[in-house]
What we know:
The two termini are about 35 Å apart. The longest helix is centred in the N-terminal third of the chain and has 45 residues, at about 20-65. The protein is of the alpha+beta class. Helix 4 (about 145-155) crosses helix 9. The protein is elongated, with a radius of gyration of 26 Å. The mean pLDDT is about 85. It is built from 9 helices and 7 strands.
Amino acid sequence: MPRRRPGPRQAAFAERLLADPPAVRALVRKMLEDCQSVFFADAWQRVLPDLAADSRRKADLLARRGLAEAVGAMSPSVSLHESDGRRRIVIDKLQDSTAIATDRGGVTFIPTVFGRPHLLAVYAQGWRPVLQYPVAEAGLPEPVSLALVQQRLEALAHPIRLRLARTIARGPHTTGELATAWQLSAPEVSRHLAVLRKAGLLITERRGRYMLYQLDLAGSARLGSDFLEAVLR
C-alpha cells in the first residue's frame, strides 16, 4: 500500500508545532481539559476514592514500615533489593530489562483501577522511570508472583504429587493413609507433601497426634487465572 502524504491541515499543525511548541502544548492541554469535563468527569469521581485510599495506605506504609513494605504492597511482583549500598526495584515480568533512576529523578508510581492485572513499566534513556500498578479491589484475591505460580505448577507436575493431590482433594488424610493408598513409604509421602506445602497448596489440621493434609481447593482453583495474570502482567 502506498504511503499517504499528510494533508494541508496535518502539515500546518506540524509547522506550528516546530515554530511554537509551548503554544501547541497549551492547545493540547486545553483540549484534554475539555475532554475531561465532558467525557471523563463522572468516571473520575467514581474511581477517585479508591485512588485516594490507595495513596493513603502507601504513604502510611512508607512512614511506618519503610520503602520495602510500600513497594511490596503495590503487587507481590514488585520488590525492593538492597546490595552494596544500592537499592533496586525488581518487577517480576517475563522480559528482562533495566532502567536507572537518579537520586534527583527518582521513580514515578501511578495507581490505576483500570489496568488489572498489568504492571506497566515505562522508561527511556534520560527519562524518569514510571511504574503503573493496579490498586487492590475488594472481593478479588491478591495477585501472586510469577515465581510462585511456577513453583505450584512444578509441584503438581510430578506424577506422584498429582496422585496425592487427587486424593487429598476429596478430603483430609494422614501420611500413613496416603502411603497405604498409593503403596508408598511414609517418608516418601512426607517429602512430596512438603513440596506441596511449600508451594502453598495444602491445608493442615492436627487431630490428637495425627496431622491431616488436605488440598487447598480455593488456591488450586485459582491456579489457571493466577497463571494467566502472571503471563499478562
